[in-house]
Amino acid sequence: MVSSDLSTSLGCRIIVIVGPTAVGKSALAVWLANAISAEIISADSVQIYRYLNIGSSKITLDERQGVPHHLIDIVNPDEHFDSGRFARAADLAVSEIVSRGKIPIVVGGTGLWIRAFLHGLAESCDVPAEVKRSVDRRYREKGLHTLYEQLCLVDPILAARLPRTDTQRILRAIEVYEATGRRLSDLQGEHRFQQERYNCLRIGLRMDRAELYERINCRVIEMVDRGLKEEVAGILGRGYAPDVRALAAPGYRETVQFLLGNLDHATLVAQIQQSHRRYAKRQLTWFASEQAIRWYSPEQRSDILQDLRDFLGGELREPEARIK
Asked: Looking at the whole model, is its pTM more than 0.90?
């Protein structure tokens, strides 16, 4: 059942900006938000967590340039947050933004979350809290590899598609199977996603693969220099266990291993760089299957602005000169 306020926002015009990590999505979103009357909804599965700032490249208050951002810093590191919960939260954010006469800009690289938001997910994937706790307890006690082996037995089709390190999706698949007795790959095949619930312009950013990887390598070095080790130590110091789901994210799981004495500094940096490059490759593969995306390089801002002008029908003003 959809609230009356939400019902009025379904079908409204929204902008969606996607692309791999480090390509420049956040900066473009802020630039565009200053060209239109817009607010930004983050679709990032790490930036939703409080305290995970440096390793997630979370946009700072200064970088936001006064543009309201939604769905950042909304859950603690040990809380469960999946695509269904994101879709519901994003729907509410859109409703609030539209009620203020603003245009929503959804920006992020978590492809499944964006697809769930735009198309909806099967209601049968809801999982009781006690099942989530049971699966999470086994993850903590026996490790991710044990759950991945279980997934290979109960849902080999999905297991073949998932990286062995994809904690969130592996645990989710086990949860769904134990809650419903059905394989998540079967449920996804039956659902096949609905038609888009919003009037949406999808903008994709991409660049030469070698250039992107070099940018990722440099950004990882900057993360470590800015205090990634200290950030993770601070999270652990708050009482969160090293194996909470948030700390399984790229960059964080390697830093936990460093703090446990299992990696030296050089290996830490190299492994985080590799982890982020692999994540970017998975993102590019995912978004390549989305047919409706209009692709640009980060330098094509004037072309993107023209597409927005056409899509929104004259609701644009020129970006202020101070925005770079």
From this structure: no
